[in-house]
Each structure stands twice: as C-alpha cells, then as structure tokens.
Amino acid sequence: MKATIAVLPGDGIGPEVTTCATELLRAVADKNGHEFQFVEGMIGGCAIDATGAPLPDETLAICEGADAILLGAVGGPQWSDPTASVRPEDGLLKLRQHFGLFANLRPVKTYPALVEHAPLRADLLQDVDILFVRELVSGIYFGDRQEQGDGDVSHDTMRYHRSEVEQVVNVAIRAAQGRRKKLCSVDKANVLASMRLWRRTVVEVHEEYADVELEHLLVDAATMHLLTRPASFDVIVAGNMFGDILSDEASVLAGSLGMLPSASLRSDQFGLYEPVHGSAPDIAGQGKANPIGMFLSAAMMLRYSLQLESEARSIEMAIDAALADGLRTADIAGKSGNAVSTSEFAAVVASKL
Ligand code: NAD
Fold first, then answer.
1. pLDDT recorded at residue 219
2. Residue 11's closest CA among 216, 277, 318, 223?
3. Rounded to two decimals, what is the model's pTM?
4. Given 30, 49, 220, 282, the catalytic residue
C-alpha cells in the first residue's frame, strides 16, 4: 500500500526517537512491499523559534495532506517562561483540536523481562494489560480560562458536554468488548458537577452494552487501586486531565515512561501517534532515549490508520524479542549498567522484524 505520513519530531529527544521510528517504518515497508512517504514539519519550541508559532500553517497543511501523523515530543526549559504568550504545548493542543482527535488510547502492559527492575512487587505486576482511553479535546485543558500574568487570581474551567462524554465512552466500551470486557470509569463525581454529568452519561451509554462489566472509581481512589491491583483493570476511561495523570502514573507498571505509546483518534481512520513521554531535556542529545514508546506508537499507526495489523504485530514482536535478549536502554537497565544507545537499540529491533 501507499501512505503519506506527516512526521513532526518536535523538541528534546523528539527528533532522536522519531528518526529511529521512520527508519524502522522504512524497514517494515521494504519487507512488506509498501510505499511510505514521510513529510516532515515543525511543531513546538523549535517552531516558535523559527516562525513565532508553535504550530505553523505549513505544518498543519502537511498534516492535512497525510494519512496519519507521527509526533515526537514538544517543550523544554527554554520555552517554559510562565509569562510567555505562546508555549510549545499550545501546538499540540491545537493539533489535537484541529483534527477533532477526541479519543486518546494509551495501552500499558508489563514486560516479563523488566519485572525484576520494577519498583512494585513482581506478583502485583503479573499479567498487567490496561488500555487507557482518555478524552482529549475537552475538559479542563480546553475550558474557559483566565490567566493574569503575575496577578493573584486565575481560573480554569472543567466543562463537558454530554455528547463529548458519549463519544469517548463508546470508543472505550467497544475496545473493552474486544478485550476482557471490563470498563472502569474514573471521575470525581462526589465533588464536581461536570463529573456527575460524566458518570450519568457513562451509565446511560453502558445500558446498551450488557456484556461489558462497569466499575466507577473516584480519581483519588483510582490512583491507589492502579498500584495495588493493576492486573484487575482492562479498559479505563477518564476525562482529559485525570486520564493524563493516571496514564503517566501507570508508566511505572511498564518500567519507564519511555515505553508507553499513544494513539489519538477520531471516528475515521486518521490519527496522531506519539509516545506518552515529553521531550526529556535532561537526556536530550545523549543517545539515552528509550525509543520503545515511539516504536509502539508507530505500530499503533500501522494498526489503526493504515490497517496493517500483521506489520504492527511485527514491530511489537521485534521489541519483545530485543528485550528478551537482554537489550536495555539506560532507563530500564536497572543496576546492571549494561545500557545500549537509542540507535543501537533501534538497530537490533529492526534486525528482529
Ligand atoms: P518527560 O516525559 O520529558 O520526562 C520525565 C522523565 O522521564 C525524565 O527524567 C526523562 O529523562 C524520562 N524520560 C522521558 N522519556 C524518556 C525516554 N523515551 N527514555 C528515557 N527516559 C525518558 O517529562 P518532563 O520532564 O515533565 O517534561 C519535559 C518537557 O516535556 C516539558 O517541557 C513538558 O512540558 C514537555 N512534555 C511534553 C509532552 C508531549 O510532547 N506530549 C508530554 C509531557 C511533557
């Protein structure tokens, strides 16, 4: 098949992991007779420096002409001035909103090869396989806000419309139907009106799906249950902010934030694929970045936007094989200290396709 992929490396370790991912995708295309065209655009801090805008029109045009978007990460200390009028993250939020990418899928699973280095007891990490479905284009990250520079009062508004909750809960429930048929909805219905609407809507949508077991958790309790009984969860659906925080918390289950992928989808096949991690300025340019989150994001792109399931599986299996062989980047090397660089890790994964 022929596909055009918009590649937005961004800042910090973004370009390092994105380069490895496009090389891996080229290898997948060569092996399977596909033709992938990669078109690169700027986003985030580097785009602010070059054009003044975190998401230049030219980048948006590249994305509009593509079948899918592959993104590294944005941000860094040089663009973190709280009084700045534009921020790198604005580019990301605008991109998600522009394309109406309302459902953010973040799978988290444990790797048997890494369990010994995890901060949680090994028995708790047996068979952890969770799919987070996070609402991505509404809630408190997009609600009315007032920012007063150095003033004494600011506010952000958590606002949801029933239809926004319905569409993301439908995605989550259908995903659960194809998995272990369990849905956990996370909210803060005991305090927030918007979260009472969330819970009511979840209950109503669930009435159509008798085969899926539904559990509700308040977000504060959910943070604890995620660490004390992670294997009991199948699909977790949450609003924008709670989904963001909980899925980052869940990265400790996988071994490192660098291992987690994400897909941001709408109702058709178009999607934005990016690792969950940020630009990691503390390790940028040192060849220490773990490319697994980016590779798994590329695999999700093959699966959801290009319908190439077996090619997606080939990437996932190559990563499993590299880890089983003992290959580690610094973040998952534990005390052994036997870490390989980002590009060395990537080369071994490509050789195992
Ligand atoms: P971060 O995810 O960049 O880093 C957190 C920690 O995890 C750091 O110690 C980092 O070294 C480590 N880490 C992250 N990814 C890794 C990888 N692939 N391999 C090995 N180690 C990895 O979060 P942060 O430090 O809070 O934020 C840094 C910048 O990134 C900030 O400007 C923030 O706004 C931005 N950010 C961007 C995104 C995004 O682009 N989607 C997401 C989160 C944070």
1. 98
2. 277
3. 0.93
4. 220
